[in-house]
Amino acid sequence: MTRVATFNVNGVNGRLPVLLKWLSETGADIVCLQELKTSDEKFPEKAIEAVGYGAIWHGQKSYNGVAILARGQVPLERRRGLPGDPDDTHSRYLEAEVDGLVVGCLYLPNGNPAPGPKFEYKLRWFDRLIAYGQLLLEENVPTVLCGDYNVVPTEIDAVVPHRWVGDAVYFPETRKAYADMLAGGWVDAVRTIHPEKGIYTYWNFTYRGGYDRSSGLRMDHLLVSPSLSGRIHSAGVDVEVRGWEKPSDHAPAWVDLSGREPL
């Protein structure tokens, strides 16, 4: 069994105790991190290595940033940055191979305030992801595209859907782009296992530092290529991490893939 997980850490250095505790407990084989909010030279490579993971990362001071970790080895980098816009300097995409599995780690733009330039950038980025995703599918190798998509695909993915109708994560155009990815062949691992269950990966902070359970959203997704769809054994969210001391506003989501070891 191989577990692939995704976690928007909302600042890898500020949330390092949470990340290290979770890495020590999770048993995940491959981990994708988003919103590192750190330059490359300040990424906590040694601390992550001390709990058993090799890492590659694509940082950016104060904003964005993505990383891929693998238990007991360093992922083999395949791509840094999403193709399609040479002027895009945001650190939002990183791709690697681990034991024959291709893993794309992404942090899709939030898009707020919407409508406006940030939402237009979000949709352009999503179009690039859809186009590149099709190229990955044409390679016909086992692939997982995971991360913070900043998309709430359907009503079941929000505790209170009407609270989000004015938010870019729930706009019809955003949801259609995600649906287009699925129509192109990608498989939503969590929905495969839990087709009708309300499952959430994000909750707003409260002013006291806790979290508002009524604000729950599913925005962190693990999409797998068709060749892996029959190997989805289980999938879920480590919700308890959201309640730890000084947590991220996201909780880790994961999928267990059955089959030969390594993949």
Automatic annotation (TrEMBL):
<dbReference type="GO" id="GO:0004519">
    <property type="term" value="F:endonuclease activity"/>
</dbReference>
<dbReference type="GO" id="GO:0006281">
    <property type="term" value="P:DNA repair"/>
</dbReference>
<dbReference type="GO" id="GO:0008311">
    <property type="term" value="F:double-stranded DNA 3'-5' DNA exonuclease activity"/>
</dbReference>
<feature type="site" description="Interaction with DNA substrate">
    <location>
        <position position="250"/>
    </location>
</feature>
<dbReference type="InterPro" id="IPR036691">
    <property type="entry name" value="Endo/exonu/phosph_ase_sf"/>
</dbReference>
<dbReference type="InterPro" id="IPR005135">
    <property type="entry name" value="Endo/exonuclease/phosphatase"/>
</dbReference>
<keyword id="KW-0460">Magnesium</keyword>
<feature type="binding site">
    <location>
        <position position="35"/>
    </location>
    <ligand>
        <name>Mg(2+)</name>
    </ligand>
</feature>
<dbReference type="InterPro" id="IPR020847">
    <property type="entry name" value="AP_endonuclease_F1_BS"/>
</dbReference>
<dbReference type="GO" id="GO:0003677">
    <property type="term" value="F:DNA binding"/>
</dbReference>
<keyword id="KW-0378">Hydrolase</keyword>
<feature type="binding site">
    <location>
        <position position="8"/>
    </location>
    <ligand>
        <name>Mg(2+)</name>
    </ligand>
</feature>
<feature type="binding site">
    <location>
        <position position="150"/>
    </location>
    <ligand>
        <name>Mg(2+)</name>
    </ligand>
</feature>
<feature type="binding site">
    <location>
        <position position="250"/>
    </location>
    <ligand>
        <name>Mg(2+)</name>
    </ligand>
</feature>
<dbReference type="InterPro" id="IPR037493">
    <property type="entry name" value="ExoIII-like"/>
</dbReference>
<keyword id="KW-0479">Metal-binding</keyword>
<feature type="site" description="Transition state stabilizer">
    <location>
        <position position="150"/>
    </location>
</feature>
<dbReference type="GO" id="GO:0046872">
    <property type="term" value="F:metal ion binding"/>
</dbReference>
<protein>
    <submittedName>
        <fullName>Exodeoxyribonuclease III</fullName>
        <ecNumber>3.1.11.2</ecNumber>
    </submittedName>
</protein>
<feature type="binding site">
    <location>
        <position position="249"/>
    </location>
    <ligand>
        <name>Mg(2+)</name>
    </ligand>
</feature>
<feature type="active site" description="Proton donor/acceptor">
    <location>
        <position position="148"/>
    </location>
</feature>
<feature type="active site">
    <location>
        <position position="107"/>
    </location>
</feature>
<feature type="site" description="Important for catalytic activity">
    <location>
        <position position="220"/>
    </location>
</feature>
<dbReference type="InterPro" id="IPR004808">
    <property type="entry name" value="AP_endonuc_1"/>
</dbReference>
<comment type="similarity">
    <text>Belongs to the DNA repair enzymes AP/ExoA family.</text>
</comment>
<keyword id="KW-0464">Manganese</keyword>
<dbReference type="Pfam" id="PF03372">
    <property type="entry name" value="Exo_endo_phos"/>
</dbReference>
<feature type="binding site">
    <location>
        <position position="148"/>
    </location>
    <ligand>
        <name>Mg(2+)</name>
    </ligand>
</feature>
<feature type="active site" description="Proton acceptor">
    <location>
        <position position="250"/>
    </location>
</feature>
